[in-house]
Amino acid sequence: MKRVAVGVADLRRKPKFRSERVSQLVYGEAVTADGGEGGYLKVVGPDGLAGYMQKTLVGDLDGDRAYKLAARHAAEGLQFPFGSYLSEKEASKYRVPKKLLVPIEKKFDPTTLSRAFMGVPYLWGGTSDFGYDCSGFTQRLYRFSGVELPRNSSWQRDAGEKVKGFETAERGDLVFFSGHVGMLLKGRQMIHANLSHGGVSITDLGDGSPYSRALMEVFQGIRRFERLKAA
User: Fold this and answer.
1) pTM above the 0.90 mark?
2) Strand residues in the chain grouped as ranges (E)
3) In this structure, which of 20, 62, 86, 160 has its CB flanked by the most CB atoms within 10 Å?
4) pLDDT, tens digit, for every residue of 15-37?
């Protein structure tokens, strides 16, 4: 097992730089390497998604992971995004403020920190606060909360517990549309990474706007995952 040794590492569909970015992993996340080609390793991430990652982006990091970062931190030329995983030694070495260090086992409501990412730009395949796509945003928030979701919106749609409708939906439930996913905050308000607004924004699906009506025309359902509360 190896770990991502840079702030954000792209996972590519094929072992070449111009290949599609299918996902990303952040500092300290584990990958299982199985062969490779040229300067790329074939790896499998924590969600089971396989792809190719440049060899220079992974390494054998010292120490068990003790913390996850509640916000971005910069030190010694590295940018550690939200959700990075650090050991005790690394937390000390990079002088990470205690307020950013969350014990790795601590559970959260996935909506707790979601508004902090308002305006983060949309990035195809993105899973970090440098850029998210829709399912990368929901996956990252849930992973920080202690629940592992599938990577893509269609896979997330087929997981979890089916919710009958908005009348019985709860904060944190995921709302699915054709090729898109968002997370409910209250009522019909959802936070989501979307290309239409260029990044993370909040949409009220009941406001009657052309955008909301267009989304509801391709609405596919609501799913609920494990309910977690902050300790």
Assistant:
1) yes
2) 2-4, 8-12, 21-26, 30-37, 40-44, 50-54, 58-59, 67-69, 73-75, 78-80, 85-86, 101-103, 127-128, 131-132, 161-163, 174-177, 180-186, 189-194, 199-204, 219-224
3) 86
4) 999 999 999 999 999 999 988 89
